[in-house]
Amino acid sequence: MTSRSMPGLFWLNSAQDDEARAALHEVCAAGSWGSALLARRPYDSVEDLFAASDEATAALTDEGLDEAMAGHPPIGRPKPGDATSSREQRGMAGASEALKAEMLELNLAYQEKFGHVFLICATGRTAEEMRDALRHRIGNDPQQERRIVRQELAKINRIRLTRLTEEGGAPGHGPKEGAHGASTSVSTHILDTSRGRPAAGVAVRLSVRQGDARAAWAAHGESKTDADGRCKDFPALPEGTTHVRLDFETEPYFVEEHSSNPRSQREAAEQQDAPRVRDSAPGSFFPEVSIVFAVNPGEHYHVPLLLNPFGYSVYRGS
Q1: Backbone angles phi, psi at 109, to 5 degrees
Q2: How far, CA to CA in Å, does 10 sit from each of 162, 165, 191, 226?
Q3: What DSSP character marks residue 119?
Q4: How far apart (Å, rounded) are the C-alpha atoms in residues 102 and 21?
Q5: Tens of pLDDT along 174-227?
Q6: Are 228 and 190 in contact (CB under 8 A)?
Q7: Distances in Å between the alpha carbon of 30 and those of 20, 153, 288, 292?
Q8: Does the reported pTM lie above 0.70?
Q9: Are 244 and 293 contacting, i.e. CB atoms less than 8 angstroms apart?
Q10: CB 161 within 8 A of CB 27
């Protein structure tokens, strides 16, 4: 398969000029940058598109660079409804109020000195890393800072072009986003390995976290495994989600299974070399199972649980 067959690159190569220009404007607000990329269509590969973007970014005049920067909101203050900037700045989601206040003060001081927004490729950076970069760069002279801004803009443009080419990021051509402004989704299923069959009727709760491990969890959805042991009806994750937790209520399932089929529990205990005292005890050694995993925007995560009364394992499926 060639790069040209990717949905977004195919669309970019074949779209009308006004439609393609609108899509490129979402990547970079500088009109001359968009015109330069349009003039070099069609692209045989994403690498060719990246090269054209780098050249167009390097060729921006001072006015063009200002135009590009005007399309980027300050770090920590994305515009309402701006899913792209919120996704790129998600490292700020879990920042403390003190750190957010410091970023606001530094941003204002930076803008007063240089006359433009502090621009940094925020994707994958923590709030502390962005704060430290801002502290350092505010000491630059204007000429040195504009060179750095141009370099950061080139990185951002590449990341946004990657999203366009991989997902068909033009208006009306990309993946549909959920009600919470994100297309990231989660599903699971449970296999009872002591019986070799799906575990039906297990309640599962989904919680989300935005930011690092210090951020608070927020309940986001509930489900119950169907006859095939699957949960497929969780809502799409909110924009900015960095971690997901699945809580499986396993004890009611094993209590019910023990009362309806005590032999399977005894066999499971023997297979696990469990003490005999557990043979007649209802429930399981793990009354509930919690799984925490990291997520990236726009992906689907299927996380199965392999379960028995005395152990469990999980993995990322497909």
Answers
A1: -65, -40
A2: 13, 8, 41, 40
A3: -
A4: 37
A5: 433 433 334 688 999 999 988 888 999 999 999 999 988 888 899 988 999 988
A6: no
A7: 14, 11, 53, 41
A8: no
A9: yes
A10: yes
